[in-house]
Each structure stands twice: as structure tokens, then as C-alpha cells.
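Example 5.3 — CRISPR-associated autoregulator, DevR family
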Amino acid sequence: MAGYLAVAAKLVLNVHDLNNEGSVGQALDIRQIRMVDENGNPLEEMPAVSGRMMKHWHLEHMRRKALGSSNVKLCSVCESGQPDRQTQATDELQAIEECLVCDVHGFLSTKKMTNAPRRSSCASFSWLLPALGTRPESKQVIHSRVASGTEASSSTGETSQMIFYKTYASGVFAFVAGIDLNRIGSTIDNRKVNGDIKTRRRVAIQALLPIVLGAFGASQSHALPHAKCLGLLAALSTTEKPVPNLISPIYSTGFEESIALLETMGNGVDWWSYGDGLKNAKKTVQEVFQEILAKI
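Solution (predicted C-alpha cells):
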């Protein structure tokens, strides 16, 4: 039995452009956020990636896995890669039976009816934030796009050049996430989908792996970050016993405090780690996920 999965990960990301604020003139700036240290003292603005971006990419990795499987379904909107959390279903069970993404990431019915069905997400993500005590580096870089021939000028055929600026960041970052596995395939009133719930849960878990390895965010076609997972902790409840959110690895002792907490929970909660200095660490990130999937 699988109840709840909680994960915490720390990554080093070099030269990334994973989340943008928007453009001002010819400049595209990376998203910045304000934080405080462990004593509550304010820190200067630093680059970060929103939880919405992290959640979107978990959804996208789920969608890709579902497209390659005959055991799970996607509704037409989610299959197209443009899920908007809206459905025309008149019942929660109908909506989640028709779509894995609607099941795991939730939906809101747009039908004009009393008590229109809605479903909150089974997956939750924090922001990806810089580790406290570190200071991410960022730099604005000049890019140019050259257009020639008729693209540049239909009358003269001359070549033109467009200059624009983008900001890139590097640093050590961390995030926490959780998936309520018990809720997958089940409505709020405990009706079950007519399908393989185990496969649905496995796909939701497998979609976390590329995120832990750095596959998320914007600009991947031309600014794929040089990513490396420095540490990972995963906890899985094998009963209905809840697992708390893990302490974020943005804190210097986040992993160690989480492990100490998990060790007090006794039977019914399994946990695995990866990373230098962590207790009972596996050799690879993939081994951690293999252990989780073996319990599902």
C-alpha cells in the first residue's frame, strides 16, 4: 500500500534561464525573489523558479509517459500539451477516469451547473530556491538575431540584426515536493476509477525523476542548465500514516533534520537518500526511485 510520497532535492545549476519575469524593452530578466536567512534577516533578491513552473514540468513529464503507454488515458486537452485545469465533465469520477493528468493535477469544471465538480491537485511543489549561505551568480548576456533577404526587408533584401539581452543564473538550489498517492484514482467520496491505479501512481512518481535531474523550466532548447543532483531524500508511507513535508535542503541541516524526524516515525514509513554524507545513501538517484517504485 502506498499513502504519501515526500521528496527533497538539492541541485547545482550552472547557466540557467529556467523562469523569466518578462521582457522590458529588449531585455528579458530572470525571476527574482526575496528571502530571509535562518535568523529572519532579510537577504538581497536572488534568482528562483516558481512552484507553478515545477508543477507544470511534472505534469509535462507525466503527459509524455502517458502518451507512450496504453494503460493510462489522457483527455484531448491534456493530450495536446495545453492543459488548463478545465473540463466539461459533470462528475469528478468521470473526469479522472478519462485523464491521468486531471486525476493527479486536478481540474475545475466549466459547466454551468450547481455544485460543478472540481478536484484539488494530488501533487504539490515548492519554489526552487537558492540554498541559504550561498549567493547565486547572474549575468546579463547580449544575443543577436540576424535576418537576411526578404525576411529583413521585402523592398531592399538587406541584412538586419536584432540585439536583445537575457539574464542567466548559476548556483545551488533546492525544492521539496509531495504526492498524495492514496488520492490518485479515487474521488473525494472514495469512488475508484475503473482502471489500473497502480500504473497511475507509478507514472506520477517516475515523472519526478527528470525534475530531480534538472529537466524543467524555460529555455531548454538553447539554455539547458548544467545540472547535477547534490542530494535527494525521499520518504514513502506504506500505511495510511501521513508523512510530513520534508525540511527543505535550502537550510544547511535540512536533510539531516528530516532523516532524524523520519527515524522517529517507526514502521509504516520507508525512506531513501542519495548524496555525500547522507545516512544510508544510495549510489545513484535512479536507485532511490527504483526503491520507491518497488514498494508501489
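Remark. The longest strand covers residues 160-179.
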